[in-house]
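Please go through the protein record below and explain what the tokens say about the fold. Record follows.
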Amino acid sequence: MKTVITTGGPDEFFKRGKRVAQLADQGKPIPCERTISFEDPEDLARLVTTAKLLLFREVRDCPGSITDLAMRLHRDRSSVKRDVDALERIGLLEVEEKPFPGHGRIKEVRVAAEQVLLAI
């Protein structure tokens, strides 16, 4: 699935909905994509920080636990956790709890989309 991150207001939202409805009416396939739209560009700017982009790339290249990611990125675990939570909240990352043999459970972080497009 492709995820598109963009800015736009209600008009853009309804324009996308109309396009999907037209495709459905014509019996054409509807693209499998998720759009994350920010009405306020400042909200988007808070998402697209250097630290969050590096974290996203690291997870994309090699999923792992928050502790593992913090060690690989040479960052504090709590700051990585905050960034993971922010990226999970908007749907770019997924966190899954898995059994960790001999040690209880572990939360694995992985990307939620095969492709992410930033369209401003």
Summary: Strands lie at 2-7, 33-38, 64-65, 93-100, 104-111, 115-119. The longest strand covers residues 93-100. The chain is about 45% helix and 30% strand.
